[in-house]
Amino acid sequence: FIYLKDHIPLIDVYILQALTSSETQEGYDYERFEHLGDSLLKYQSSVHLMFEYPSKSEGALTYYRTAIVNNRNLAKLSEDANIGGYVTKISLNVKKWYPSGFKHVNKRHISRGMMA
Questions:
Q1: What does the DSSP 8-state code read for residue 81?
Q2: Strand extents, DSSP E, the chain
Q3: Are the C-beta atoms of 105 and 114 separated by less than 8 Å?
Q4: How many angstroms separate the first and last alpha carbons of the chain?
């Protein structure tokens, strides 16, 4: 497991799903998490704004929340954080895949006695 703050486990499968685009056609993608994330973001923004601006009307708070969670603003924040760089957009080919930062080693170049 990978653990988040307060020792909450984050299961690897969920990480993979959260970073997989429907373009991969893997049978899973981040859409379900995106829906949940949108709801949580709206909730958290609403709570923050209610405490930040206790005397503002519900209409004003809704206007402020809409400004925070609008797609253009979220896309800009995502771009600034390079979130898209972590999203998988192509189907995984396990025969050709290797972790980022690792180099493919041709078996002819492996020293004697070592197996790939």
A1: T
A2: 2-4, 8-10
A3: no
A4: 27
